[in-house]
């Protein structure tokens, strides 16, 4: 292959990429630089603009291209075409991230993993913006900035701060189930190939007749849900901070393609009405014994990005990006997220971020009432009318969804009044955390001690002023847990006993 001819960014060939033009008498040490030196000026000016705003959360990540294949028919639940027809395949783009730390931070820190997936379907893009734990720390969206600030850096010291972390969580105890998962070894996954991903939220699967089911999504790793111990994760963070990034890249490069099985849990609206837990409360799971998992399809990562910045940093995922057949539920966190992600993408990438190659739908896009703006690269719909209902050019529309009584009952809001609302914590919020403590960790030799040790190591770095409230919070799960955390913090360095 012949070598590419170097040019400036406007395409003009240039003699040497290392020269600078200067005015001199030939002396090696004397000379003045010239403003006409376009190569030097463009090189320096572009360098200062290489960074775009980092994601305010989930800044550090790894990504891959892939494929989703339908393995089980669920056309009785949804009209979404990418889920209809066994064997149907769609191209995908994924981005798996830590949440709190900034870009370039060690991969193995104790944190939730974000798990974003874009499925390029014949009906437009379907984004799943999930986490590797099935519950969330809050259920009131206004708390989201506070939650994340408490996990990040202190405003004065700029150091991550255990006191802020436990102060937030001991005063907002609805997150106890998520905390239990975070401080088990699931908070330190072995690699991104070994994490599961969960919608957490309840979504809706809809049919054109207006009927629907409530669903939760689960992507289970076919590599197994494997973890590191706290000590292994800490060692890797120092010795091999890019460990997860390199692991995924190398696996894909060597043809060892990781895969996940997609399952759903589905409930009718009537079942949701009488279910023990509010299906719009993201701090609760639906135990599999209540609502069994149904297999749907297989996701495989099969291609590394050609360029990280172009494919992964510029990728924009949003829970609001949904194809016909899927819809948001009334979960307040999910509702808030419908706004937050496109808003963040416009700030980070500009008004036309959907036109970037990594985000561009593969099916035809005709959105002529959204045009112009910085970096318009889609032809801008030429001379087509830029206003609605023009008689000059016919535009076809999707058939509206019929209204049936089931839909009316859950989606038509005829009574009520505007009121300020904040959820309150009750004993019921500790039930599932207790099920995890007794049923899951209790069934695995030594895992209760692991969780207590992980909590104590972190809480021990916080100021004592937040300890009592935190011990009390863990006692609400089980008195032995609260006592064990108290003893472990008091006796840091001694062996943990539960
Ligand atoms: C009120 C609640 C939430 C708000 C306001 C919120 C907001 C945000 C924002 C602003 C970003 C950065 C987006 C960007 O710059 O492109 C982000 C990223 C992300 N969020 Fe959330 N978030 C919320 C809850 C959640 C929940 C519950 C999950 C998982 C179930 C989640 C998963 C993610 C993931 C995976 C990313 C990274 C997306 C990517 O890779 O580009 N978030 N969130």
From TrEMBL:
Swiss-Prot/TrEMBL cofactor(s): heme
GO biological process, one term: hydrogen peroxide catabolic process
Entry annotation: catalytic residues: 58, 131
Cross-referenced Gene3D superfamilies: Catalase core domain
Cross-referenced SUPFAM superfamilies: Heme-dependent catalase-like (SSF56634)
Keyword terms of this UniProt record: Heme, Hydrogen peroxide, Iron, Metal-binding, Oxidoreductase, Peroxidase
Lineage: superkingdom: Eukaryota
GO CC, one annotated term: mitochondrion
Residues that bind heme: 341
Pfam families found in the cross-reference section: Catalase (PF00199), Catalase-rel (PF06628)
Family: Belongs to the catalase family.
Name of this chain's protein: Catalase-domain-containing protein
Gene source species: Coniochaeta ligniaria NRRL 30616
């Amino acid at each position: 292959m012949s070598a590419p001819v170097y040019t400036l960014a406007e395409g003009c060939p240039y003699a040497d990429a290392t020269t600078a033009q200067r005015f001199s008498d030939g002396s090696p040490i004397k000379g003045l630089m010239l403003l006409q030196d376009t190569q030097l000026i463009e090189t320096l000016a572009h360098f200062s603009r290489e960074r775009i705003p980092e994601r305010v959360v989930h800044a550090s990540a790894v990504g891959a291209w892939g494929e989703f294949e339908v393995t089980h028919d669920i056309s009785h639940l949804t009209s979404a075409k990418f889920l209809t027809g066994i064997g149907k395949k769609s191209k995908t783009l994924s981005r798996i991230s830590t949440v709190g730390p900034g870009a370039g931070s060690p991969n193995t820190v104790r944190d939730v993993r974000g798990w974003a997936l874009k499925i390029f379907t014949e009906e437009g893009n379907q984004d799943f913006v999930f986490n590797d734990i099935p519950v969330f720390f809050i259920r009131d969206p206004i708390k989201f900035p506070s939650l994340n600030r408490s996990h990040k850096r202190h405003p004065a010291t700029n150091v991550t701060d255990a006191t802020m972390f436990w102060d937030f969580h001991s005063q907002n105890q609805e997150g106890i189930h998520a905390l239990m998962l975070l401080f088990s070894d699931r908070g330190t996954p072995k690699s991104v190939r070994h994490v599961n991903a969960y919608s957490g939220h309840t979504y809706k699967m809809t049919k054109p007749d207006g009927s629907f089911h409530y669903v939760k999504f689960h992507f289970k790793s076919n590599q197994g849900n494997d973890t590191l111990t706290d000590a292994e994760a800490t060692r890797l963070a120092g010795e091999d901070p890019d460990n997860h990034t390199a692991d995924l890249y190398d696996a894909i490069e060597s043809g060892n393609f990781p895969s996940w099985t997609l399952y759903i849990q589905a409930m009718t609206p009537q079942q949701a009405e009488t279910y023990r837990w509010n299906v719009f409360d993201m701090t609760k799971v639906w135990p599999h014994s209540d609502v069994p998992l149904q297999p749907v399809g297989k996701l495989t990562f099969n291609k590394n990005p050609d360029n990280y910045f172009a494919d992964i940093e510029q990728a924009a995922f949003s829970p609001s990006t949904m194809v016909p057949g899927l819809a948001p539920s009334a979960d307040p966190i999910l509702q808030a997220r419908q706004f937050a992600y496109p808003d963040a993408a416009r700030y980070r990438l500009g008004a036309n971020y959907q036109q970037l190659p990594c985000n561009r739908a593969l099916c035809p896009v005709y959105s002529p009432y959204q045009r112009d703006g910085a970096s318009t690269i889609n032809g801008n719909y030429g001379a087509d009318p830029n206003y609605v209902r023009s008689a000059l050019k016919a535009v076809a529309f999707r058939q509206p969804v019929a209204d049936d009584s089931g839909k009316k009952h859950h989606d038509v809001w005829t009574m009520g009044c505007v009121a300020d609302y904040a959820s309150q914590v009750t004993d019921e919020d500790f039930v599932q955390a207790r099920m995890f403590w007794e049923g899951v960790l209790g069934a695995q030799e030594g895992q209760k001690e692991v969780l207590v040790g992980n909590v104590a190591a972190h809480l021990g770095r916080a100021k004592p002023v937040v300890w009592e409230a935190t011990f009390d919070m863990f006692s609400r799960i089980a008195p032995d847990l609260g006592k064990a955390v108290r003893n472990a913090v008091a006796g840091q360095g001694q062996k943990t006993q539960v």
